[in-house]
Amino acid sequence: METVKIAGLNVPVSKFNPGSLGSDLIETDSTVRNLSNILYPLLEGKPVLLVGDAGVGKNALIYYINYKRKHPTARFSFNEDTLPEDLIGSYRILMDGRGFTWSDGPLTSAIRSGHSFVADEMNLCPPHIIKRFSTVYEAAYLELIEGDSSRIYCGEGFNFIGTQNPAEGFEGRKPLPFDITRFFSVVFIDPHTPDEILFILKKLYPALSESLLQSCIRISLETETRVVTGKLGKGDLEKYHFNIRNLKKLCNRLLGLKADTSELQFREFWNFYVEPFRKKEDRDFQIELLLSESGLKVVPELPEPSFQVHKGFLYCNDKEIPIRDEDKAKRLLSEVPLPLKLREFSERVFTAIQFQENVLIEYSEEQDPQILLPLFAEISGLPLETVSLCKGIHTSDIIGALKPIDGSKVDWVDGPLTRGIREGGNILITNLEAAGAELVEKLNMLTDDARSLTLPPEAGRNEPIQLAEDSRIFALKLFRKSKSTATISRAFRNRFTSVLFPDLEDESTLTEIVSFYLPGNSLILKMVNFHIKVRDLAKKRTIGSANLVPYLFGLSNLLFWKDHILRYADADGGKTGLKETAVRGGRIAYTNQIADPKERMELEKILDFQMSGIEVESDFFKILEDRKKNSNNGHRH
């Protein structure tokens, strides 16, 4: 029998093609120790449960073992919606509605085929669901009571491996109970030491100097220590985590962007170790760390981002994104206002896109990232599928289910997530915080190196569907304001690159945005001043003091206002008509929502006074008509 040596053990080799996942694992002392701890029970046919923090490489170890021994891995991401039939299988109605056919689930398929089965994030699933297939890890067989009631035995090659993150920092999940874990060989996966991390990075990125790698590691370890001890990020109410996954992304960028100066290196350090934090004091704290490591005295000033489309690429300073349709890319760039803050934000997003990173855009209620969504989600020319999450949504709603399709016919219908993967385009997930950790953890395989999704048995497919190489995943998430609000786990967050949507509420930025849509310096200045005035009154509770929840006014209010003016103002009405339209639009966008009649009247007086002195330039209405035509043709939104 052919064998291969893994961690000093002779392991039998299978005759399958396991793919390339796991091929880049670097063996260190702790890796060898972890591999040895896994292999002994695995070769004895015992079920194994891997326990360890996010990013320590639990799945990577299994992929590596199976890559070396040429053995397939079937992986299923558990969540709170997981049902027995998702794993075991179910009957599927034939297309003509005249019969049924049985479809194996991933667990049943792995048992029949003699493959390894990885129950990823097993503790997210309720224990009473896990006990349905308890005979698999207790007595090595599965009874298909959902099917023909036959009993299938776990034969040669089959292994049952579960993974579990600890309870701390993972949004309330609980460890598996002892009456389940007592049947497993439980292995705690030790994290890498700093020296081992350096060894790994030197192997993976030999072109980067050792001193630079050491700086990266020190920054990462110190940032994680600050988070764990509560010195950093506490006010954000989020669960942050910094590990070797962040370091690999950082090193990919340093290498790919040829960041060979302290200034360029500082920029990428910032993107990973400053950008995720919302509070100014946290950012300043991190900037001190980056300056000390980079040897710089002040935050470097870098060239302002600029965008060019040329010969099949979008160029943003030193970044380049392949695009399929140059005309569409140029049109998208021309459709949105791009003041400096939005250009800097876009540059960060485009950098993540270039390096195949999942992008998490976080924003406050007052801001409106929708203004830029088409720019980064569609500019590549790939189709876009949007997955809108909400509280109470089920896994089947986004993945798919059996549904009537034509009269009495019933067949599998893809949900938006599955449809987006099959189309080979980009996927935009909105309201990420609304669904809760139970559902989004189902996306684990899709957002890590596997980049795939396992469908339920009724889909009639055993193999996971694969995300295309060019496809990117974008997610939108509101800032968390209270501990009672749901958020994502730090394990899931760690799979994304976080980019904060900027605060656009300063006068110059707002003026530049409105000027993109409307002519007339006088009108624009008065609109912006009124917006800032109302926003400040609401924040100080000068208006809305009797309300339980304060009024919020953000960029969307200003955009609603300009929409009204753009639609109704015209040359026939002249200056008087423009003022009437502006006042009416201001009431629609701002004052009509004020509950207290006195407060509403006071704001309307301020609005009327602000709009009374509008100066109309000689070419105002001509430019306005041109802007209207562009808007009607879909060039501006």
From TrEMBL:
<dbReference type="GO" id="GO:0005524">
    <property type="term" value="F:ATP binding"/>
</dbReference>
<dbReference type="GO" id="GO:0016887">
    <property type="term" value="F:ATP hydrolysis activity"/>
</dbReference>
<dbReference type="Pfam" id="PF07728">
    <property type="entry name" value="AAA_5"/>
</dbReference>
<keyword id="KW-0067">ATP-binding</keyword>
<feature type="domain" description="ATPase dynein-related AAA">
    <location>
        <begin position="47"/>
        <end position="176"/>
    </location>
</feature>
<dbReference type="Pfam" id="PF17867">
    <property type="entry name" value="AAA_lid_7"/>
</dbReference>
<dbReference type="InterPro" id="IPR040848">
    <property type="entry name" value="AAA_lid_7"/>
</dbReference>
<dbReference type="InterPro" id="IPR027417">
    <property type="entry name" value="P-loop_NTPase"/>
</dbReference>
<dbReference type="GO" id="GO:0000027">
    <property type="term" value="P:ribosomal large subunit assembly"/>
</dbReference>
<feature type="domain" description="ATPase dynein-related AAA">
    <location>
        <begin position="378"/>
        <end position="496"/>
    </location>
</feature>
<protein>
    <submittedName>
        <fullName>ATPase, AAA family</fullName>
    </submittedName>
</protein>
<feature type="domain" description="Midasin AAA lid">
    <location>
        <begin position="196"/>
        <end position="293"/>
    </location>
</feature>
<dbReference type="InterPro" id="IPR011704">
    <property type="entry name" value="ATPase_dyneun-rel_AAA"/>
</dbReference>
<dbReference type="GO" id="GO:0030687">
    <property type="term" value="C:preribosome, large subunit precursor"/>
</dbReference>
<keyword id="KW-0547">Nucleotide-binding</keyword>
